[in-house]
Amino acid sequence: MDMDGLKQYFNIGSQHKLFTPKSPVFGRDRIGQFGIGKFASLSACRLFEVITKKNDFVGRVIFNKDNWEGTKDLWQLPFERLPVDFKKHNGTTVILIGLERKFDPKNIEEKIIEGTPIKAPNFKVKINNHIIIPRSLSGHKIPFLEGSSFGIVSGEIIIIPETAVLEKEPGIEIKVKQVTVKRELFGMETWGKGITRIGGEVNADFLPITSDRTGFIKDSPEYQEFLKIMERIMEIVKVSFQKLTVKKEGKKVNRALKEALQRIYRALAANPDLSPFGCFPIGNEAKGAGGAALPEKSGENGNEEVKVEEKKEKPKIKRKKKPKVKKLTPDAIIKRIKFGDTGVSCVVDSFGEDGPEVFSEETTIYINRDHSLYKRESSKADTHILNLARLITQEIALMKDPRNPRHAFEMQSKLLRDAFV
Description:
Layout lengths: L2 H7 L6 H4 L25 E10 L2 E8 H7 L7 E3 L9 E9 L5 H11 L10 E2 L2 E2 L8 E8 L4 E8 L12 E5 L2 E6 L13 E6 L17 H50 L14 H4 L15 E3 L26 E7 L2 E8 L8 E4 L2 E5 L3 H6 L3 H19 L5 H16 L1
Helix pairs in contact: 5-8, 5-9, 8-9
């Protein structure tokens, strides 16, 4: 800075940045608006020193907080002109003198990432010779670019994997001229734990900022239009998040259901008198364990049919028609465990929170994933498998047409014991 630039630097409330929003050398967007940010350092020290050089001009100002408070309206800029060779290169140095606070470099780095446009070209910040790099989140990215009456709204929302959920304050960073002003949830308050998996940033340089730079003028037309745009964007994010959640949930259910059926198969093989499906094939135990040792045959939505290998020279017989399986939603998980010519089909699908926990139609067992007990038990892999096995063995015991409920309970208990003990 030259002398005019130095005076402008200490001028509070100037509209200079509004009329010249770009820097002269690199054409960067000038951040700040009210000219008070420089004085924030006085919360950590009693005075700061500014040394600046522009060509043959070298000047220094030592701003003393106590002198400034004492002189009030009579205060004048304590300027000192220095020799040209005092500073080698053009630029400005600011030194905080007499620090009254201790700083953690990690906290400083976090503040610089949010409050400094470190993504700008030809610009970098170092702390103790460590270059600070922008924050980067991995996951499913949803970029957007929207126009408005006041300017562009752009950014990127990221759905983060469960293994890397956000440990810090949740929300989308709202940036003005690449500087984070505030985090906003944009209606994610009702998303439950999923809120910790949504991150990213939105850039809207036209938003009017409050004087303390901690928020926006919410009743302004600029902010109101911005909210409408973000409402549309967050609807897209919500749909994508639900699809990813359902897809992952389907894989988890698929694995648990397969494990439960294989365990039940082994229990029925050990107790053929409890099977409502007739005789079991005699042969290699691994081949009979619900197809655990056979190649998987997968279809849409991870549905899979587990078959026991049949003897090659088995005589042809007329097969019974399989019961129809009703897929109520595209996300239903269906598996069939087969014992010779008969077996049982298991369907895990959504039947509503008030629907039955489990029910059967002929040899098809329907399990309600919306039921409160199912939701609770499916939170952990081991209890998920055990709960599925409980529901399936309950229906198998009823298919055996027991003499009384006590007999059915005993059958189920024996199957569960041999499946897990």
